[in-house]
Design a protein that fits this description.
With 204 residues, the protein is mainly α. The chain has one domain. It has 10 helices and no strands. Helix 3 packs across helix 10 and helix 6 crosses helix 7. The radius of gyration is 17 Å and the shape is globular.
Length: 204
Protein backbone atom coordinates (compact mmCIF):
# COMPACT_ATOMS: atom_id res chain seq x y z
CA UNK A 1 0.00 0.00 0.00
CA UNK A 2 1.13 3.53 -0.78
CA UNK A 3 1.40 6.56 1.49
CA UNK A 4 -1.56 8.90 1.89
CA UNK A 5 0.23 11.61 -0.05
CA UNK A 6 0.91 9.22 -2.92
CA UNK A 7 -2.81 8.43 -3.23
CA UNK A 8 -3.58 12.13 -3.22
CA UNK A 9 -0.94 12.85 -5.86
CA UNK A 10 -2.32 10.09 -8.07
CA UNK A 11 -5.81 11.53 -7.64
CA UNK A 12 -4.63 15.02 -8.64
CA UNK A 13 -2.92 13.60 -11.70
CA UNK A 14 -6.09 11.79 -12.80
CA UNK A 15 -8.20 14.89 -12.30
CA UNK A 16 -5.93 17.04 -14.45
CA UNK A 17 -8.11 18.26 -17.28
CA UNK A 18 -11.14 16.60 -15.67
CA UNK A 19 -11.87 18.92 -12.77
CA UNK A 20 -14.93 20.30 -14.53
CA UNK A 21 -16.61 16.95 -15.11
CA UNK A 22 -15.80 15.95 -11.52
CA UNK A 23 -17.23 19.18 -10.12
CA UNK A 24 -20.37 19.06 -12.27
CA UNK A 25 -20.98 15.41 -11.34
CA UNK A 26 -20.63 16.37 -7.68
CA UNK A 27 -23.02 19.30 -8.16
CA UNK A 28 -25.65 17.07 -9.79
CA UNK A 29 -25.30 14.55 -6.97
CA UNK A 30 -25.52 17.23 -4.28
CA UNK A 31 -28.52 18.95 -5.85
CA UNK A 32 -30.50 15.73 -5.92
CA UNK A 33 -29.46 14.19 -2.60
CA UNK A 34 -29.27 17.31 -0.46
CA UNK A 35 -30.79 20.46 -1.99
CA UNK A 36 -33.90 18.77 -3.40
CA UNK A 37 -34.42 16.80 -0.18
CA UNK A 38 -34.24 19.91 2.00
CA UNK A 39 -36.49 21.84 -0.36
CA UNK A 40 -39.15 19.13 -0.27
CA UNK A 41 -39.10 18.51 3.48
CA UNK A 42 -38.70 22.13 4.66
CA UNK A 43 -42.42 23.05 4.57
CA UNK A 44 -43.45 19.83 6.33
CA UNK A 45 -43.94 19.24 10.03
CA UNK A 46 -41.25 17.33 11.90
CA UNK A 47 -42.91 13.90 11.73
CA UNK A 48 -43.85 14.06 8.06
CA UNK A 49 -40.54 15.66 7.16
CA UNK A 50 -38.57 12.91 8.90
CA UNK A 51 -40.55 10.23 7.08
CA UNK A 52 -40.14 11.86 3.67
CA UNK A 53 -36.46 12.47 4.40
CA UNK A 54 -35.94 8.77 5.11
CA UNK A 55 -37.76 7.73 1.94
CA UNK A 56 -35.74 10.22 -0.10
CA UNK A 57 -32.45 8.82 1.22
CA UNK A 58 -33.59 5.29 0.34
CA UNK A 59 -34.43 6.41 -3.18
CA UNK A 60 -31.01 8.05 -3.48
CA UNK A 61 -28.96 4.99 -2.45
CA UNK A 62 -28.35 3.89 -6.07
CA UNK A 63 -27.28 7.46 -6.87
CA UNK A 64 -24.83 7.38 -3.96
CA UNK A 65 -23.39 4.20 -5.43
CA UNK A 66 -23.19 5.82 -8.85
CA UNK A 67 -21.33 8.81 -7.44
CA UNK A 68 -18.63 6.62 -5.86
CA UNK A 69 -18.24 4.43 -8.92
CA UNK A 70 -18.09 7.48 -11.23
CA UNK A 71 -14.64 8.32 -9.90
CA UNK A 72 -13.44 4.72 -10.07
CA UNK A 73 -14.28 4.79 -13.77
CA UNK A 74 -12.50 8.13 -14.07
CA UNK A 75 -9.17 6.79 -12.78
CA UNK A 76 -9.54 3.76 -15.04
CA UNK A 77 -9.82 6.21 -17.95
CA UNK A 78 -13.14 4.78 -19.04
CA UNK A 79 -15.60 6.83 -21.04
CA UNK A 80 -17.82 8.62 -18.53
CA UNK A 81 -20.67 11.07 -18.70
CA UNK A 82 -23.12 12.42 -16.16
CA UNK A 83 -25.64 9.72 -17.03
CA UNK A 84 -23.34 7.20 -15.37
CA UNK A 85 -24.26 8.71 -12.02
CA UNK A 86 -27.64 7.03 -12.42
CA UNK A 87 -26.39 3.58 -13.47
CA UNK A 88 -27.24 2.24 -10.03
CA UNK A 89 -30.94 2.43 -10.87
CA UNK A 90 -30.44 -0.28 -13.49
CA UNK A 91 -29.71 -2.66 -10.60
CA UNK A 92 -31.45 -0.70 -7.85
CA UNK A 93 -32.68 -3.62 -5.73
CA UNK A 94 -29.28 -5.31 -5.32
CA UNK A 95 -27.45 -2.03 -4.81
CA UNK A 96 -30.10 -0.42 -2.61
CA UNK A 97 -30.51 -3.42 -0.31
CA UNK A 98 -26.75 -3.87 0.06
CA UNK A 99 -26.12 -0.23 0.97
CA UNK A 100 -29.14 -0.21 3.29
CA UNK A 101 -27.85 -3.28 5.12
CA UNK A 102 -24.45 -1.61 5.41
CA UNK A 103 -26.06 1.49 6.95
CA UNK A 104 -27.99 -0.73 9.34
CA UNK A 105 -24.87 -2.54 10.56
CA UNK A 106 -23.00 0.76 11.02
CA UNK A 107 -25.97 2.19 12.95
CA UNK A 108 -26.07 -0.88 15.20
CA UNK A 109 -22.35 -0.45 15.91
CA UNK A 110 -22.86 3.21 16.76
CA UNK A 111 -25.70 2.37 19.17
CA UNK A 112 -23.26 0.57 21.43
CA UNK A 113 -20.27 2.88 21.02
CA UNK A 114 -18.94 5.23 18.37
CA UNK A 115 -15.77 3.21 17.79
CA UNK A 116 -17.55 -0.04 16.73
CA UNK A 117 -19.61 2.01 14.29
CA UNK A 118 -16.45 3.52 12.78
CA UNK A 119 -14.81 0.10 12.49
CA UNK A 120 -17.84 -1.40 10.75
CA UNK A 121 -17.99 1.62 8.43
CA UNK A 122 -14.35 1.08 7.48
CA UNK A 123 -14.93 -2.64 6.96
CA UNK A 124 -17.78 -1.94 4.53
CA UNK A 125 -16.14 1.04 2.82
CA UNK A 126 -15.33 -0.84 -0.38
CA UNK A 127 -18.80 -2.27 -1.02
CA UNK A 128 -19.68 0.11 -3.87
CA UNK A 129 -16.44 -0.64 -5.70
CA UNK A 130 -16.80 -4.39 -5.13
CA UNK A 131 -20.29 -4.32 -6.63
CA UNK A 132 -19.02 -2.42 -9.67
CA UNK A 133 -16.38 -5.07 -10.34
CA UNK A 134 -18.72 -8.02 -9.74
CA UNK A 135 -22.14 -7.41 -11.23
CA UNK A 136 -23.51 -10.69 -9.84
CA UNK A 137 -22.29 -10.56 -6.23
CA UNK A 138 -24.99 -10.74 -3.56
CA UNK A 139 -25.70 -8.49 -0.60
CA UNK A 140 -23.78 -10.25 2.15
CA UNK A 141 -21.01 -11.48 -0.14
CA UNK A 142 -20.28 -7.90 -1.21
CA UNK A 143 -19.94 -6.84 2.40
CA UNK A 144 -17.79 -9.87 3.21
CA UNK A 145 -15.48 -9.15 0.29
CA UNK A 146 -15.15 -5.53 1.41
CA UNK A 147 -14.31 -6.69 4.93
CA UNK A 148 -11.72 -9.11 3.54
CA UNK A 149 -10.11 -6.36 1.46
CA UNK A 150 -9.94 -4.11 4.52
CA UNK A 151 -8.24 -6.62 6.81
CA UNK A 152 -5.14 -4.90 8.14
CA UNK A 153 -5.97 -1.65 6.35
CA UNK A 154 -8.75 -0.08 8.42
CA UNK A 155 -6.39 2.22 10.34
CA UNK A 156 -4.74 3.36 7.11
CA UNK A 157 -8.08 4.29 5.54
CA UNK A 158 -9.14 6.04 8.74
CA UNK A 159 -6.05 8.26 8.65
CA UNK A 160 -6.45 8.81 4.92
CA UNK A 161 -9.99 10.07 5.50
CA UNK A 162 -8.83 12.18 8.44
CA UNK A 163 -6.11 13.79 6.33
CA UNK A 164 -8.85 15.62 4.41
CA UNK A 165 -10.29 17.25 7.53
CA UNK A 166 -8.44 20.52 7.08
CA UNK A 167 -9.63 20.78 3.47
CA UNK A 168 -13.18 20.01 4.56
CA UNK A 169 -13.12 22.85 7.08
CA UNK A 170 -11.80 25.25 4.43
CA UNK A 171 -14.45 24.09 1.95
CA UNK A 172 -17.21 24.68 4.50
CA UNK A 173 -15.90 28.20 5.05
CA UNK A 174 -16.56 28.87 1.36
CA UNK A 175 -20.26 28.12 2.05
CA UNK A 176 -19.80 24.68 0.56
CA UNK A 177 -18.69 25.85 -2.86
CA UNK A 178 -15.22 24.43 -2.27
CA UNK A 179 -16.77 20.98 -1.87
CA UNK A 180 -17.35 20.89 -5.62
CA UNK A 181 -13.60 20.51 -6.02
CA UNK A 182 -12.80 18.78 -2.76
CA UNK A 183 -15.25 15.88 -3.14
CA UNK A 184 -13.94 14.81 -6.57
CA UNK A 185 -10.42 14.93 -5.09
CA UNK A 186 -11.55 12.88 -2.08
CA UNK A 187 -13.51 10.30 -4.09
CA UNK A 188 -10.73 9.87 -6.62
CA UNK A 189 -8.24 9.30 -3.80
CA UNK A 190 -10.50 6.60 -2.33
CA UNK A 191 -10.82 4.97 -5.74
CA UNK A 192 -7.04 4.64 -5.91
CA UNK A 193 -7.00 3.18 -2.41
CA UNK A 194 -9.45 0.49 -3.59
CA UNK A 195 -7.36 -0.30 -6.64
CA UNK A 196 -4.37 -0.98 -4.41
CA UNK A 197 -6.43 -3.13 -2.03
CA UNK A 198 -7.66 -5.17 -4.96
CA UNK A 199 -4.18 -5.54 -6.47
CA UNK A 200 -2.72 -6.57 -3.12
CA UNK A 201 -5.35 -9.28 -2.63
CA UNK A 202 -4.77 -10.64 -6.14
CA UNK A 203 -1.02 -10.77 -5.55
CA UNK A 204 -1.54 -12.44 -2.17
Amino acid sequence: METNQTYKNRALASLEGKWTIGAVATLIFSLIVNIARVSITYPMDDTTGASVNGIWILLCLPLMWGNRVFFLRLIRQEDIDYGHLFDGYKDCVRIGVTLLLGCFFVAIGCVFLLIPGIIISLMLSQVEFVMEDDKEIGYLDAMKRSADLMKGHKAKLFWLNLSFMGWIILAILTFGIGLLLLLPYFNTTLAYFYEDLKAEQQIG
